[in-house]
Amino acid sequence: MRPVTPGDDGFLFTLYASTRAQELAAWGWNPAQQEIFLRTQYQAQARHYAALYAPEGHALIEVDGAPVGRQWLVRTQAETLLVDMALLPSHRGQGLGTRLLCAIQEEAARARVPVRLNVTRDNPALRLYTRHGFLPVPGSDPASPYLELHWRAPEGDSGTGPG
């Protein structure tokens, strides 16, 4: 992990585009239309995150010195918010996301705070989160495409990690 710098923007766009590839393939747009849409959406997300969240929690995930993903955490005295975690397709499904999520849970358990996140209902990562004990926040809007999840270490867990 290392802090994100302005020079990482090209990689971050590529990463963002990779998270939307399956969705866009279904729309039948040509590559130029996809590029315009993706750039617009990426810039909107970047502005939104920058307006809401401190940059200190924004990190690139590297393997052997090469960027393979990003993680954005907001740590407060009350909770840890997982704003975003994404990996390139070539690094999904190999346990890296699990290791990252376990590290977040262990840190939150030591700090005695819950972890909160939002995920789209059709995101394959939803299985990862539920497997690691994340539960829907009561009162979540069933019509929303997003599901708000939370996790709290069991009483007496001092950060040894989820089973």
Automatic annotation (TrEMBL):
Gene3D superfamilies: 3.40.630.30. This is GNAT family N-acetyltransferase. InterPro entries: Acyl_CoA_acyltransferase, GNAT_dom, YpeA/RimI_acetyltransf. Residues 1-154 form the N-acetyltransferase domain. Pfam families: Acetyltransf_7 (PF13508). SUPFAM superfamilies: Acyl-CoA N-acyltransferases (Nat). It comes from Corallococcus soli. The keyword Cell membrane does not apply. PANTHER family: ACETYLTRANSFERASE. Keywords: Acyltransferase, Transferase.
